[in-house]
Amino acid sequence: MKKVAIFGATGYTGFELVRLLLSHPRVKISVLTSEQYSGLPVDQAFPPFRGRLAGAAFVKTDDALSAGFDAAFLALPHTVSASVAVKLISRKVPVIDLSADFRFRSVALYESVYGVRHGSPSLSAKAVYGLPEVYRGLLRKTRLAAVPGCFPTSVILGLYPLLAERLIDLKGIVADCKTGVSGGGRNPSLGFHYPEVEGGVRPYGLPKHRHNPEMDQELSLAAGEKVSITFVPHLVPMVRGILATCYATIRPRVAAGAVESAYRKHYAGEPFVRLCPPGVLPSTKDVSGSNFCDIAFRADEKTRRLIVVSAIDNLVKGASGAAVQCFNLMMGFPEGNGLPYTPLFP
C-alpha cells in the first residue's frame, strides 16, 4: 500500500484525483493540501466524499512538505508546482505534476509561452512527458512525470501514428477542438461562467493558445522534423469533455489502408485508446468520467484530405486519469488500477 499526497486538492483535477484514488487497491490518501480550506474537514469542502475520508482535513502546502508519503500528485498552478516538486524530489519522493512546469523540453520555450522564469531548469531536464501511449518505458523509470495538457492529449493521440509513420503532409495540419467549461478551472471567471456560456459556442485563446507549442513539440518529435499546426479551441455549453477534429493531407502514394494500419500498429494493445468501429464517430458522452480516448478517421480519396476525430474527458484522460496512469507505471502497478473502465451514462 502506497501513501500518497495530493497538493492542490480542491480544484477540479484535485477532486478527480481523490475520486479515482479512492478506488485504487494499492493507495491510501494520506495528505491533502489547500491554502483556502486549510483545517477544514474534507467532507465539508467536498460533500460527495462524505464517509470516504473520515477524519481527513486539508493542510497548508508548507505543513505537508515534511509529512510522510510515498508519492505526490501536484495539482497546482504553474510556477508553484516547480517549487514544490524541487523539495519533494530532493527527498526522493516520486512526483506526478499536472501543471505545465515540466512539459517542455526547452526551458526557454516554456518561459516564453507562460511569461515567467522557470523555477527549476535543471529538474526540468529530468522530467518525462506523461503520455503513456508514447513514453511508457521512460515513465517506468522516472521520478518526475509531467502530465500533458488536456488539449494536447486529444490532439497528439489523434495525430501521432500518422506522423510517426510519415503518412501525412507536415504543413497545413489543423486541430479544431471543443471543450466544456470545467477546463477553465474552479475559480470563478466571467468567460467560463455558465450563464455566459449556455446557448453559445465561441473560440478563445487566439491567435495562439499556450497548448499549441506543447502540441508542436510532441508532434515534431513524432515526425522527426519540425511540425507547426493550427490549433483553435472553442468553448461549448457542457461541463466536461473535449472533442478534437484534426484535418491533414495524406501524402502521395500512401497505400489504401495505411492509415488504419498505423492506428492499429500504435494503439491495438493500448488499454485506454479505443478505435471506433466502422460507421461510428467519437462523442464526448461516450468517454465521460472515464480514462478512454476514442478515435476515428475518415478519408476523401479524391482530395487526399484526412479527418481525424478524438474524444476524451478533459478531467480524466486529459488530466487526473492520465496522472494516475503515470503513477501506476512509476510504481510498477497494473496500469488500470484506480481508473474507471466504464464511462458515465447518460
Task: Please describe what this structure looks like.
The chain has two domains: 2-126, NAD(P)-binding Rossmann-like Domain (Rossmann fold), CATH 3.40.50.720; 150-314, Dihydrodipicolinate Reductase, domain 2 (2-Layer Sandwich), CATH 3.30.360. The chain has 346 residues and is α/β, with parallel strands linked by helices. It is 31% helix and 19% strand.
Distance between the termini: 34 Å
How many domains comprise the coordinates? 2
CATH topology of the largest domain: Dihydrodipicolinate Reductase, domain 2
Largest sheet: 7 strands, mixed
Secondary structure tally, helices? 12
Major sheet strand order = 8-9-7-10-13-12-11
Mean residue pLDDT: 95
Order of helices and strands: EHEHHEHEHHEHEHEHEHEEHEEEH
Q: What's the number of extended β-strand segments?
A: 13
Basic shape:
globular
Q: In percent terms, what proportion of residues is strand?
A: 15-25%
By CATH, the superfamily of the largest domain comes out as Dihydrodipicolinate Reductase, domain 2
- The level-1 CATH class of the largest domain: Alpha Beta
Work out the radius of gyration: 20 Å
Uncertain regions: pLDDT < 50 for 5+ in a row?
none
Structural class: alpha/beta
Helicity range: 25-40%
Can you name the CATH architecture of the largest domain?
A: 2-Layer Sandwich
